[in-house]
Structures are given as structure tokens and as C-alpha cells.
Predict the 3D structure of the following.
Amino acid sequence: MTDAPDRVIFTHEEVRYSAREILHAKPDAILAQRLLRDVLGVLPNDPELKEAKEASASSMWVRQLEAAQLPDGSWGRFHSQDIKTKTVFRTTEEAIDRAYALGLEPDHVVLTQARQYIQNVLHANAQITDRDEKNEAWPFLVQFIVAGRLAQIDPTNKMLDSFWRYLAEVANQAFASGNYCLEDEAAAYLRLSGIHVPQGFLESQHALWIISSRRLPYQLDRSLVEWLLNKPDGIRYLRAPLAEPKPYHIGYWLRSMNIITRFSSWREITVDTLNNLWEQRDNDGLWDFGSDISRSIDFPLSESWRQSTKRKMDYSTCILVLLCKYFD
């Protein structure tokens, strides 16, 4: 367990108490599994967790995810949507994010098949079906986009070693002055690969999954997290400001924060944001960001939001999982 900075205003026991209160209200199985496993930390052989896991596996949302997966392990295009085709999940990336939102573990069949597909692509034994983007750096960057998803699913995979070394060197140069500099990042790609990446790539979720898969030097880790927390547009592809959660972007904010928690300095840098979040509970000790939120695959988790209590349970479960990581 990590020692918490003195200025944190919530305790581990308060977080766990809130989880037990939701469990007493008999939430849907997906929430029960996440609360038992990720907040209360019950053992895998616990009867209540086993029951919740079995019920979650047969829920409508998990069955939807399984039914949409293709035989090759993908869900169609990998990164860019084909607007001419109507599918349940717009991209393979979206389906992977949905799997994590539903609390699936890395050894679940949909994620093991997705991992094998990604490895096949990186080994050039399979190809993504996306159209090439009109960007000279696309053939180079798409490899990091695919590798980023491997880092999300399987962060210790040896295939990531060379990707991590490359981006760690880019980050070293981008933060050489002590603060992030886009021109220095772009110069790093030009020096290392002779490729122009004028908009940078370190701010993307893919680069961050890769970089966080191995430990960075402390000062570089801290500089990177502080930069991300203070970026007005957040992490690329998610675009949710991190310092102050916006109700409309709550799904993207939670996903962004789950990336941030992979870095060693995240607790001391985000503590004020987490304190503010803790204080946003309603009189029932739950969080509610309303039903008018940006379309994302993070919600719903309950099978219906016709009752506002179900919606509150969804939000509160995800926030309690995040807050519990503070004490891991």
C-alpha cells in the first residue's frame, strides 16, 4: 500500500464503506463485480464475487461485445471509423475500451483474442483494414497506435520494449528544458526516424499507454503528468480537461484518469482534483453527472438508466474504483 499525501480528505475506509452501501442496494452484476474486486479487494474464490462474475458474463452488455467480435479478434476497423458501415462498435479500439468499462479481465476471451490480433498485426501476420490517413507519418504512427492498445491489455509484453525505448527518448528530448516543448518533440522524431510529426504524439492515449508500461525516471514522470493535468484539452482522442472534471465529458475524463494512474507520480499531482471530486457527492453519498453526457462507451453499465438511482450507481462505482487506486 502506498502512503497517501497528508492533504487527501478521504480515507480508504470511506471509499470502501461507500462501495458496501451500493452493494447493499443490489446493483447490476457488472457493478457488483467491480466493487467487490476493485474496491473491496475480495479474493477470487469469494462466493459473492464468483456469483457476480458469472452474472456479469451473461449480462446483455458483455453478450453484445462478444457477439460483435469478428473471428480474427477484431471488431472491424482498428482506429478510424468506416462511416458507410453500421456496426455496434465503431472501431476495435472502441470495443476494447468497452471491455474495460465492463470490468472484463485481461484473460477474458474477447481480450485474449484482441491481444492475439494485435500481436499478429505487429508481427505483420495480419493487417488492419483502416484506410491510410493523409499524413506522411501515418505508416510510422499507426504502429505505435496498435502497440498502444497492446500496452493497455498486456503492459509487460516484450513486444513493447522497443516502442517504449523509442518514446522514452522522445519524451526525454521533449522535456529536456524542464517543461514540455512541441518543437523539441518534433525534432526528436526527425532525428530518430527522419519523419515529420509536427503535431506531436506524446499527448495521445497510445503513447501514454506505452510510456507508462515501464518505469520512467521520477522527474520525467512528474513533468509529463503535470503537463497532462494542466493541458486545457487533455489527452488526445479523449479531449477531457483533467484538472476539473466536466459532467458532460465524465466518461472520457474517467478513461483519461485511468491512464494517468499508471504513472508513479500521479497521486501527489492529482490529489487536489480527487479531493474536489470527493466533495461532489450528493446527500446519498453518490455521484450524479446527469443523463446528458457525451457519447462514449463508458456508460451505461447497468442494463437500464430509466431509474436515476441506476445511473448514480454507475457513476459512483467508476469513481470509487478510481479513488481506491489512490491507496493501492
About this structure: The CA atoms of residues 94 and 297 lie 7 Å apart. The chain has a mean pLDDT of 95. Residues 308-325 form the longest helix (18 residues).
